Amino acid sequence: MPIAVISSLYRCERHLPAFTAAVFGFAKRVSESGISVHFVPIVNEATRREREQIEQLASEINSHYFGRMTPQYVPRETLYASWNRGLALSQAPYFTFWNADDFRAAAALIEGYRALQSGANLVDFDYTRVKQVKRFGLFAREERIAVPCMFDGERFTRRNGIGPFFMARRTLYAAVGPFDANFEVAGDTEWASRALPRVKFQRGSADGGDFVVHGDNLSNSGGDREDIEVNIIFIRRRAWDQLRPANPRAMREAWESWGNPEQIAIPPEQAAFLWGSAAERRWKRYQSERNQAPALRRLRLALAARGLMHSVEWSMAQRGRERP
After folding, report:
1. Given this model, what pLDDT does residue 217 score?
2. pTM of this structure
3. CA-based, 20 to 30 A from 224: which of 30, 70, 290, 303?
C-alpha cells in the first residue's frame, strides 16, 4: 500500500456518520485514480456503536477493493501516541492523517502523492476553516475562511507550522523520530520543528479540505494546554522571542514534569517571563485581550500600533515580529 491514512478516534460517535460516508467516497475516488490506500483507524476506548460503524466501513472498503482498512482498538492514549501506533502498523512509504470531524479532499491527496513520488518529503496545502457562527445568539450560519498554507521550509515560527492535511514520506519520519506522545495538542507542530533541517518541501495547489471548528477541537482552541505546549516547543529551540504568556503554574509544572527531557537551562529573564511574580497578571491580561469581540480587538491593536494604548497582545507580537 503506497500511502497510509491514519485516524485517531476517541468519543467521536456524533461525527462518525459523516466521517464514514466521507471516507468511503474518498476511498472510491482515490482508488479510481490508481492509488492504493491503507486506512488505519486507531479507535480509543471504542463504544459498541463506534466499533459497529468502523467495522461496517472497513467491510465496505475492503469488499469493494477501495484500498484496505485495518481498524485497531486500544485503551485511551494521546493523539500522537495513536499516530505513532498507526505508523508502526503500516509499511506504506507515505503517510497522512485524517481527524473524524474534518473533511479531506481526494484531489489534494492525489496531488500530494504525486509530489512525494517526485522527490518532496513533506507536502502541505491551503485549507478551509469551517465554523458555525451564531448571530444574535439565535441563528447560526456557516463561516468558511480560506487558510493559506503557512509552512516555511527555511525557518520556524509560531505562524508557520504544518496544516491539518499535510503528507510526508516515511523516510522523513524515520530520520526525525516519532511524534512526542507527551503532547496532547501541538505534537504535529513539535514534530515539524524537528523535521525542518531535513525537509524537502512542496506546497500543493489544491485545497486540502475542511477543518471544522466546533468547540471540542484539540487544536485552534486557544486553551491553556495549547499555549503551554507551543511555548515548550520554542523553549526547546531556545527561540525566546517566540514565547507568549501562559498559565504560569501549569506552564512550570508541564516544563518540569515532561517538557524538558534534554535538561535545558532557561535564562533567568525568560523564567521570570514564564512564571515570575508578574507572569500571572500578564497572562490574564493577554487572555482577556485575545477573547475580546473582534471589532474591539481590532480597535485596541490599531491604537496600540500607534502608541496610543498599551496592549499585551501587541507587545508580544512585536517580540517575534508577527502580526497579531
Report:
1. 46
2. 0.91
3. 303
